[in-house]
Design a protein that fits this description.
Chain B: Its main location: membrane. The structure holds two protein chains of two kinds. Chain A is of the alpha/beta class. Chain A is built from twelve helices and twelve strands. Chain A is globular. The model of chain B has no long low-confidence stretch (mean pLDDT 87). Classes of the chains: A alpha/beta, B mainly alpha.
C-alpha cells in the first residue's frame, strides 16, 4: 500500500458509477454514469438541487445505501487504486470510519440518543484500533477539544440531547476525524444549522482538512460554501455531472446553462434586483426522467431542438473545464478542444 | 429521582382512597351479602337473623360500615374469610408464592422467547424466518388461554403424560428437597407457557417493529459509517433504543406477576391468587374479594410507578424531578 502514497494513483477514482432505486419493480438510475477523481488533500465541492443524486452518490461510495431500496448497478469505485465497489460488508467496515469517514446533514438525529458523546466517539476508535478504555477516553477528549469544544471533559459524559445543533455537528466531525481518514465525505454538513454556526463549521472543516491533510468531498446546494472552501467543483443535475472545473474558472465563467441559473439565484450585494433569479420547475422524478437527449432540456432557457434528441457528453470545453451541453462543440463529439 | 418517587407515592394516597370507595360500593352492589356465610344455615328464624345482622353491623349506615372496613384495612386487618374461616392475610400469604412462581416463570419464558424471536425477526424482516415467527405469534394471539390450556392438558397430560394436570406440587415429595422444587417447576411450566403465549406474541411483534423502525434511523447510518459491525449495530445501537417502549409492558407485567392468571390457574387447578379470586367471587367471600381487588389496584399503581422510574433509567432524555 505504501507505494501508492507517492505514486500518481488518485485517492478516489470513480468510473461510470450507476446507482439505481427500485420503483414499482423497475430500477431507475439516481446516479447515472458518474465518473470523477478526488486527489489527496483537495476539497471537491458537489453542487446541485435537492434530488439530483448528490447524497445517493456519496452513500454509494461508502456503500451505505438503505437496504433493499438502492443498489449499485455498475461502475467502479477505486480507493487508493483498489476496487472497493464489490467489497463485502466486513471489508467495507475496515475502511469506513478509518480511511473514509462521513458526516451528515442532520446533526440532530445522526447521533444515538441513548449513548454518551464519549461512547460514540470512542466506538470508532475501538472499531479500528486496539486501544484501552482509558486511552480511548483521553483521545476522545482531545478530539473534542480539537473541534473547538471547550468543556470536553464534561461533554464526553453528556448525551446528544444536551447539545445544540452546532455542537452536535462538531461532535460528528470529531468522530469522523478520529482515525485520521484520508477522505471525508461531508453531506450537506451545514444545511441544518443557522448561518453563524454554518460559518464556524466550515472554518472548522477547513482547519481539520489542513491539519490532517485529508481530502474532502463537500456536498452542498450552497454555491457560497463552495466558493469559500473548495478547490474543485462538480455540478450535478439529475444524477449526472453537467460541469466540472476548478473553483475559480467555474465562478469566473460558468459554462452550463444550469450552472449559470444556479449562480443567478444567489442574492448579490452589489446588484439591485427586482426579483431573485430562479430555475423553473423541479428536477423530474426518477420515473419521469427524459430518456433521450439532455435531461435538463425541458427546463433549459437555451434549449435547442436537438437537445431533446442528442445526448451531450461531459468533455473539456476549455483546459481543465469540462461541461456536458450541446452549446459546446466538445459535448457533441466527446472530444475536448484542448485535450492534451 | 428520590424526590420524584416520594411525590408519586404520596400521590397514590388519594387514588387509593377513591379506589377503596369504588371497591366497597361494588361489593355492596353485588347480589347477596356476606351474611349468608356467617350464620347457621339451618336456623331460619327471622328474629335470629335480625339479631345476627345487628351483631355483624350490617344494619349500620353505609358510611359507618365503610369507615369500619377501611380503618381495619389500613391497620392490616383484612378480616376473616367467610368460606375458609381463616384470616384473609394468612390465606393470601399461603397462595401468593405459587402465583409469584407462576408469574415469574412465565415472565422469564416470555422474555427469552420474545427477545430471541423479536431480535431475529427485526433484523431479518420479510424473510421466511420472520414470516414463520409472525405466523406463530398471530396464532398465539388468536387462541384464548382457556382453549390453549385445555388443549395443553389434553395433549401433554392425558395423551402424552408428560406433565401433571393439576396442583402446584407432587404431595409425596418432601418439602425443601431438590425433588420438591423440581416437582414445583414441573407443575408450573405448562401453565406458565399458556399464560405467556399472548405476551410472547405481543412482545415479539412490538420489538420486531420497533427494531425495523429504528434500523432506518440516521444514527444507525452514522454507526455504519464508523465501521461498526452489523451485529453490534443491532444488539447495541438499535436494541438499546427499542427497549424503551417495551417498558410500558413491563409495568403491566409486574401486576400480572401477583394477580395471577385467573383463567389459567382455574383450568390447571393451580392453587394461586387467581383461583382464590375466582372462588371468592363464586362464594361471595367478601373480605377476600375486597382485599384482593384492593391489592390488584395497588399493584397497578406500583407497576406504573416502576415503569415510569425505569423510563428515566433507560432513556437519558427523560429526567425525573
Amino acid at each position: 500500500m505504501e507505494h501508492y502514497l507517492h505514486s500518481k494513483v488518485p485517492l478516489l477514482e470513480i468510473k461510470n458509477l450507476e446507482t439505481a432505486f427500485k420503483i414499482d419493480g423497475n430500477y431507475y438510475n439516481a446516479v447515472d454514469q458518474v465518473s470523477f477523481t478526488v486527489e489527496r488533500g483537495k476539497i471537491l465541492g458537489v453542487v446541485g438541487e435537492s434530488g439530483c443524486g448528490k447524497s445517493v452518490m456519496s452513500l454509494s461510495i461508502m456503500k451505505l445505501l438503505p437496504k433493499g431500496a438502492g443498489r449499485i448497478r455498475g461502475g467502479e469505485v477505486k480507493f487508493e487504486g483498489k476496487n472497493i465497489e464489490h467489497y463485502s460488508e466486513k471489508e467495507m467496515n475496515k475502511i469506513r470510519g478509518k480511511d473514509i469517514s462521513m458526516i451528515f446533514q442532520e446533526p440532530m438525529t445522526s447521533l444515538n440518543p441513548v449513548f454518551t458523546i464519549g461512547y460514540q466517539i470512542e466506538e470508532v476508535l475501538h472499531n479500528h484500533f486496539k486501544i484501552t478504555k482509558e486511552d480511548a477516553r483521553k483521545q476522545s477528549i482531545k478530539l473534542l477539544r480539537s473541534v473547538g469544544i471547550s468543556r470536553a471533559e464534561q461533554i464526553v459524559n453528556e448525551y446528544p440531547h444536551q447539545l445544540s445543533g452546532g455542537m452536535r455537528q462538531r461532535v460528528m466531525i470529531a468522530m469522523a476525524i478520529a482515525c485520521q481518514p484520508k477522505l471525508l465525505i461531508a453531506d450537506e454538513p451545514t444545511t441544518a444549522l443557522d448561518v453563524t454556526v454554518q460559518a464556524q463549521i466550515l472554518e472548522l472543516l477547513k482547519d481539520v482538512q489542513s491539519v490532517n491533510d485529508m481530502a474532502i468531498i463537500l456536498i452542498t446546494h450552497d454555491l457560497g460554501v463552495v466558493a469559500e472552501i473548495c478547490d474543485e467543483v462538480m455540478v450535478m443535475y439529475a444524477g449526472e455531472i453537467v460541469e466540472r472545473s476548478d473553483v475559480r474558472s467555474l465562478f469566473k465563467a460558468p459554462k452550463h446553462p444550469y450552472t449559470r441559473l444556479l449562480m443567478d439565484s444567489i442574492p448579490k450585494m452589489d446588484v439591485e434586483e427586482e426579483k431573485l433569479g430562479s430555475i423553473k420547475g423541479i428536477v423530474p422524478s426518477l420515473k419521469d426522467m427524459p430518456r433521450t437527449g439532455c435531461k435538463f432540456a425541458n427546463r433549459c432557457p437555451k434549449a435547442m431542438p436537438e437537445c431533446t434528441e442528442l445526448k451531450p457528453v461531459l468533455a473539456e470545453a476549455e483546459k481543465g473545464h469540462e461541461v456536458s451541453c450541446l452549446l459546446y462543440e466538445s459535448s457533441k463529439t466527446g472530444e475536448g478542444t484542448n485535450v492534451t | 429521582m428520590l424526590k420524584y418517587t416520594l411525590r408519586r407515592i404520596l400521590g397514590m394516597i388519594p387514588m387509593l382512597f377513591l379506589i377503596s370507595v369504588v371497591v366497597f360500593t361494588l361489593a355492596l352492589a353485588m347480589p347477596g351479602d356476606p351474611f349468608s356465610g356467617e350464620i347457621d344455615p339451618n336456623n331460619t328464624d327471622p328474629e335470629y337473623i335480625e339479631e345476627m345482622r345487628e351483631k355483624l353491623g350490617l344494619n349500620d349506615p353505609l358510611h359507618i360500615q365503610y369507615a369500619r372496613w377501611i380503618s381495619n384495612f389500613v391497620q392490616g386487618d383484612f378480616g376473616e374469610s367467610t368460606r375458609y374461616k381463616m384470616e384473609v392475610s394468612d390465606l393470601i400469604a399461603e397462595r401468593l408464592p405459587n402465583t409469584v412462581l407462576l408469574g415469574a416463570t412465565s415472565l422469564v419464558i416470555t422474555y427469552i422467547l420474545a427477545f430471541a424471536m423479536g431480535m431475529y425477526a427485526g433484523r431479518k424482516p420479510y424473510t421466511l424466518g420472520d414470516h414463520f415467527i409472525g405466523g406463530f405469534n398471530y396464532f398465539g394471539l388468536a387462541i384464548p388461554s382457556y382453549i390453549a390450556g385445555v388443549f395443553a392438558i389434553y395433549i401433554f397430560s392425558f395423551q402424552l403424560g408428560w406433565i401433571p394436570f393439576q396442583g402446584s406440587v407432587d404431595i409425596t415429595v418432601e418439602k425443601g428437597t431438590l425433588e420438591y422444587w423440581l416437582s414445583r417447576l414441573h407443575h408450573v411450566i405448562t401453565p406458565a407457557i399458556v399464560l405467556g403465549l399472548l405476551n410472547i406474541a405481543s412482545y415479539t411483534q412490538f420489538l420486531r417493529n420497533d427494531i425495523i423502525e429504528n434500523s432506518r434511523k440516521d444514527f444507525v447510518r452514522t454507526a455504519r459509517a464508523k465501521g461498526t459491525p452489523e451485529g453490534k449495530i443491532y444488539n447495541r445501537h438499535i436494541l438499546r433504543n427499542s427497549i424503551i417502549p417495551l417498558i410500558t409492558f413491563l409495568g403491566f407485567d409486574i401486576v400480572n406477576l401477583v394477580n395471577g392468571a385467573i383463567i389459567t390457574e382455574a383450568i390447571f387447578t393451580y392453587p394461586g391468587i387467581g383461583q382464590l379470586f375466582l372462588n371468592s367471587v363464586m362464594n361471595q367471600d367478601y373480605p377476600v374479594l375486597m382485599t384482593l381487588t384492593m391489592m390488584f389496584s395497588f399493584l397497578v399503581l406500583v407497576g406504573n410507578l416502576i415503569a415510569d422510574i425505569l423510563y428515566g433509567v433507560v432513556d437519558p432524555r427523560i429526567r425525573l424531578d
